[in-house]
Amino acid sequence: MSKNILILAGDGIGPEIVNEAVKVLARLRDGFGLDIAMDEALVGGEAIDATGVPLPEATLNLAREADAVLLGAVGGPKWEPLPIERRPEKGLLGLRSGLGLFANLRPALLYPQLADASTLRPEVVAGLDILIVRELTGGIYFGQPRGVHRREDGERVGVNTLIYSESEIRRICRVAFEVARQRGRRVCSVDKANVLECTELWRAVAIEVGSEFPDVELSHMYVDNAAMQLVRRPKQFDVIVTDNMFGDILSDAAAMLTGSIGMLPSASLDAHGKGMYEPIHGSAPDIAGKGVANPLATILSVAMMLRYSLGAPETAERVERAVSAVLDAGLRTADILSPGMRQVGTAEMGDAVVAALG
Ligand code: IPM
Ligand code: MG
């Protein structure tokens, strides 16, 4: 049965990198029997310009009907003066919550070919393979009350609310334990249970869920220490499970261990395997339109889509092998360039991956 993929290119470098990922999908469809149909819609700043809102109803409806969504990036300086409620980022948050995509998988995998692209010493990062499982539809990003208001004494106060129900914690912890079973069987739950009651509950529920998975080792770490350990001895981690905001911060740090945020894909999943797939880097407005952005994170996001939402793990491996082959051949976009390698632009990199599919 044909699967529907909704393509949301978004802002900045979004259209350029998504274009390369679409080439890969089209080649898999035409040359390798992948039964898919692709549709496009507006999100983020481009949607604001065209319709006045970052997530038009039509886009959310198409996303609900799709089997999977591929997203480029949203946001840029043009829309920064807008109030938070109307910014491009709200389009992304609206998709996550509107589709119930509570589980965000962010792998930080170091390709051996790129070992010297990291700012850390090669022996610290060689062989790095971490998976951050970030809760994505709760916590301080969505908690009420929120806002900035004026108190009776005339002073302005800003408020956001960190809130989690035990069922929200339980379901994300279960995802982490289940994926740990496919990997190194170790889960580190990251919290701030020494200060925040909400994360004291997080830790208690993580322990309860851990008892359902006796074959997986569970440890706990405070988030400040986790940030330090990620740059000190990152290979101690297998799967990290954490809340929405801690996961946002730690996943950027973990990404940089691998040399370039331009290499890292992500999957945001609901309870039934439906997912939205996006590179973890942003819209990079400074290089937008120049044809130099690295499309590999988006192409690797297609691989995650094939694995998690389209039931095509072998095709996923084909895409990952093609990316590896292109790196072996010495092709590099500017962000991962090192001496002796050949610098290529966005489209040339995408074409090379398509050619390497077989
Ligand atoms: C991310 C981004 C988003 C987030 C922004 C763009 C809303 O930083 O996906 O990590 O904070 O979740
Ligand atoms: Mg982030």
Give the names of the bound compounds: 3-isopropylmalic acid, magnesium ion
At CATH level 3, the topology of the largest domain is: Isopropylmalate Dehydrogenase
Strand content: 15-25%
Percent helix range = 40-55%
Number of H- or I-type helical stretches: 12
Order of helices and strands: EHEHHEHEHEEEHEHEHEHEEHHEEH
Q: Which value, in Å, is the CA radius of gyration?
A: 20 Å
What is the CATH domain class of the largest domain?
A: Alpha Beta
- Low confidence ranges: none
The tally of structural domains comes to 2
Overall geometry: globular
CATH architecture of the largest domain: 3-Layer(aba) Sandwich
Major pleated sheet = 10 strands, mixed
What's the pLDDT, averaged over the residues?
A: 96
* N- and C-termini, Cα separation: 24 Å
> How many E strands?
14
Structural class: alpha/beta
Order of the strands making up the biggest sheet: 2-1-3-12-11-4-5-10-8-9
CATH superfamily of the largest domain: Isopropylmalate Dehydrogenase
